[in-house]
Structure formats: structure tokens, C-alpha cells
Design a protein that fits this description.
The chain has 278 residues and is an alpha/beta fold. It contains ten helices and eight strands.
């Protein structure tokens, strides 16, 4: 059972203890730092609904929520995994699904159209960069860098896209060359393998690792390595409103998060709680 201070306040696991020895901080990208892809769950669920026959007695609203919960459970992995899971769901119902590759291509087309429009607004100066950065993230990064922490990004999105979008949003310089994403063949990509490699290369243990992510994958793997995991239940429709996405919150708590936050609205207080000496 978790203790909640308020509807939009950080939630700390009972028995939570700060980590004074943190030296490296790992961030997911989409939904954790970048808001360029906001609304992606609705796009994906909408696509799935187009291919999911509704039987007599089934509720479209319930089905939509089931699909959202299922696709969010794989948040943090490359999107092909969600396509494969949906195809499995249809086969289990006796349906013949589209190929996961075809589903991924159409999902990517729809999402990329929105990303291009948002990126164009930033490039043209009609939208501020921070309109598409999770609220308070830049201030958090400043404070972590000033504290001497080494910052890294690990995303399930294609690496070249992560690098391009981090540069567009003015975030790349915080991470130097430590921006990692999925390769051209995403089915062989796992965040755990990259995390294991990074710990070995940096000569640190999991106890020195702090991670921020909005998907169960990075939370579960951080905890498995002995790290401190902060879940960002960022809202998909309102950036900076301070409200958690309810479906994300449920899944991130279940994944074992030490702390769950809506955004980074009070980074100084958050970092004091996370990193102060015991």
C-alpha cells in the first residue's frame, strides 16, 4: 500500500530511504523528458480498435480501456512489441490480425505526422521548446548536473530520432554522448542489456543509479539492479497540470517504483528527498 500526500503530490513507497551515493542518473525520453509524442497511447489504441471486432455484449469503452492498459504495460519497449501483443490478442479470439509490421507502419505514420507538426512549430519559433518538455524537467537536469551527476538517456525509440529530438528541444547537451535508443532491429533490443553494459562501462553498481521513467520496463529493471526508481506518471493531454495519468500511475506503482510523480514542478524539494544524506 502506498501513501499519497495529495492527488498530485509525489507518492513515496513506505520505508523509502534517500540515496546519498547516487552518481549516475538514467532517463527514459518520451513522456519522461520529451512531450513531443504526447497522446501516443490514444493513437495506438484507436488503431487497434479499428481492427478489433466488438462482439455482442462487449462495451467499446471497456475494450478501449483494456487496450490502453495492455499497451501501457509494454511502455518502454520498442513499439513492435505492442503490435505483436495485439496480434496475439486477436488470434486468441479466433481472428486473423494484420501483420505487426503493417500495424507498426500505420501507427508510426499517424504519430510521425503529429511529431512533424509539433517539431515544425518549435523550429519556426511559434512554440517554445519547453512546450514539449515535461514540466520542470530542464530545471531538474540543471540541478542534477550542478550536483555532479552523470546524466544518460535510454529510450525504446529509435536512437537517431531520440538524438534529433533531444537536440531540437535543447536537451542533448545535458547528456553528452550518452543518448541511447533502439537499433534498426528493435526486436533484439532490451533496456536491461543496455543498462548492464552502462554499469559495467561506468564502473558502478546499481546502488549508485537513479532512474526516471514513465514505463514499467525501466522501473522494473532499475529495481532489479538495486537502483532507485522514480516513476513519472506524466499526463498525455496536459503538460504542467500537475495531475498524474491514472493508468500509468497504477502500472508504475505495480512495477515497484520508489516514488511516483506527475512532473518535475518542484525539483529542488524532490532531489532533496531523493539524494539527501541519511
Amino acid at each position: 500500500m502506498f501513501l499519497s500526500l495529495a492527488a498530485d503530490a509525489p507518492e513515496y513507497r513506505p520505508g523509502f530511504a534517500p540515496r546519498a551515493g547516487v552518481s549516475h542518473v538514467l532517463f527514459d525520453f518520451d513522456g519522461t523528458l520529451s512531450w513531443l509524442r504526447h497522446g501516443w497511447p490514444a493513437i495506438m489504441a484507436g488503431l487497434f480498435l479499428e481492427h478489433h471486432p466488438i462482439r455482442s455484449g462487449e462495451s467499446p469503452a471497456v475494450l478501449h480501456q483494456e487496450l490502453l492498459e495492455e499497451l501501457l504495460s509494454l511502455n518502454g519497449k520498442p513499439s513492435i512489441f505492442q503490435m505483436e501483443r495485439f496480434a496475439e490478442r486477436l488470434r486468441a479470439r479466433g481472428e486473423t490480425p494484420p501483420s505487426p509490421a503493417d500495424l507498426l507502419a500505420e501507427y508510426s505514420r499517424r504519430l510521425d505526422e503529429q511529431i512533424r507538426e509539433r517539431s515544425a512549430r518549435v523550429t519556426a519559433g511559434t512554440a517554445a521548446r519547453d512546450e514539449y518538455v515535461i514540466h520542470g524537467a530542464r530545471q531538474l537536469l540543471d540541478q542534477l548536473r550542478d550536483a555532479g551527476c552523470k546524466l544518460m538517456i535510454l529510450s525504446g525509440t529509435r536512437e537517431e530520432r531520440v538524438r534529433e529530438e533531444a537536440a531540437l528541444l535543447g536537451l542533448a547537451d545535458y547528456f553528452g554522448g550518452h543518448i541511447y535508443g533502439s537499433p534498426a532491429e528493435p526486436s533484439r533490443f532490451t533496456k536491461r542489456a543496455v543498462m548492464d553494459r552502462l554499469l559495467a562501462e561506468e564502473g558502478i553498481t546499481g546502488a549508485q543509479l537513479l532512474s526516471f521513467g514513465d514505463g514499467p520496463v525501466e522501473i522494473e529493471q532499475t529495481k532489479a539492479l538495486g537502483g532507485l526508481a522514480v516513476a513519472v506518471a506524466s499526463h498525455e493531454e496536459v503538460n504542467g497540470g500537475g495531475r498524474m495519468d491514472a493508468a500509468k500511475r497504477r502500472q508504475l506503482l505495480a512495477a515497484g517504483a520508489d516514488v511516483v510523480i506527475a512532473d518535475y514542478r518542484d525539483p529542488e524539494t524532490l532531489l532533496a528527498a531523493l539524494l539527501r544524506s541519511a
